[in-house]
Amino acid sequence: MRASLIQIAVNPEESVESRRARVAGLVREERGAADLVVLPELWPMGAFAYESFAAESELLKGPTFEAMAAAAQDAGVWLHAGSVVEAVGGALYNTSLVLTPEGELAASYRKIHRFGFDKGEAVMMAAGEEPVTVALPGLTVGVATCYDLRFPELFRGLVDAGAQAFVVPAGWPARRREHWTVLARARAVENQAYMLACGTAGTHAGVEQAGHSIVVDPWGEVMAEAGPDEEILRVELDPAKVTTTRDQFPALKDRVLGVAKPRRP
Question: Which end of the chain has fewer CB atoms < 10 Å from its terminal CB, N or C?
């Protein structure tokens, strides 16, 4: 499976509408080059543009979905369209969208772990509750978002649900870039799964972004890593490598804690 990660630069002088159109064009350019395309977290307005969240919120199948569905269909790719601020009644969610090559919604994931402690996303958005996996042709992917990367139990649950790869869109700050790289590799190593972590470039509401999108294989080796600016990573994923790694080094079979045990009769 060929995958492309599009590390988008969020320029505050570029309107949300213009960015949607530009990103749709970038997705279309991956036709013939990728089977799966991944976009970052909250790229329409920026992950730290808290003051814009309510104004730029949209329905699940709102303008971002419509633009990305058309792009996915034109490119003939599976598209993890990053995330949007989803409005549901009076609540807001940080919601990721996964689209089929026909432009249909395959899955959505509401971010479970909200960043900010007592401000920003943590108080402005509601928390998701359900982990999500998506069965792509030959590869099952688990979906997580940015701050989720710090919570290994979520990724264990995704592996238990069949995940062979993780897709993690993010808006990760530059000042914690080393954490981003270490955590992405750790989640891959401990779960013996591919990690596709796609960040943003530029500055979100004054917060410099880390960039450095990264793809890690099931053994923990870095397959590709971006720099700090807008960039596209292209890699080839081999689902058989997940099976081989888990067979040759069967650490997951030695799990004790958090593993359901059969009841005694």
Answer: C
CB 116 within 8 A of CB 48: no
Q: Structure tokens of 32?
A: 């013939």
Decide if pLDDT at 162 tops 80: yes
Active-site choice (86, 146, 198, 231): 146
Catalytic (active site) residue 261: no
| Pairing between β-strand 2-7 and β-strand 36-38 as defined by DSSP bridges | parallel
> Using one digit for the tens of pLDDT, what is the confidence trace for 37-92?
999 999 999 999 999 999 999 999 999 999 999 999 999 999 999 999 999 999 99
> pLDDT (tens digit, 9 = 90+) per residue, 118-134?
999 999 999 999 999 99
With tokens 């309107």, the residue in question is 15
CA distance 217 to 166: 10
In tens, the pLDDT along 164-193 reads 999 999 999 999 999 999 999 999 999 999
User: Where do the domains of the chain lie, and which CATH numbers do they carry?
Assistant: 2-254 (3.60.110.10)
Cβ 9 vs Cβ 230: under 8 Å = yes
**Does 198 participate in catalysis according to the annotation?**
no
Tell how strand 194-198 and strand 165-169 pair up.
parallel
Distances (CA, A) of 55 to 72, 106, 174: 26, 26, 26
The CB density around residue 52, as the number of other CB atoms within 10 Å, is 18
Residue 146 among the catalytic residues: yes
Of 111, 121, 198, 231, the catalytic one is 111
Residue of 200, 147, 210, 166 lying closest to 40 (CA atoms)? 200
For residues 92 and 85, is the Cβ–Cβ distance under 8 A?
yes
- Is the pLDDT at 260 greater than 90? The verdict is no
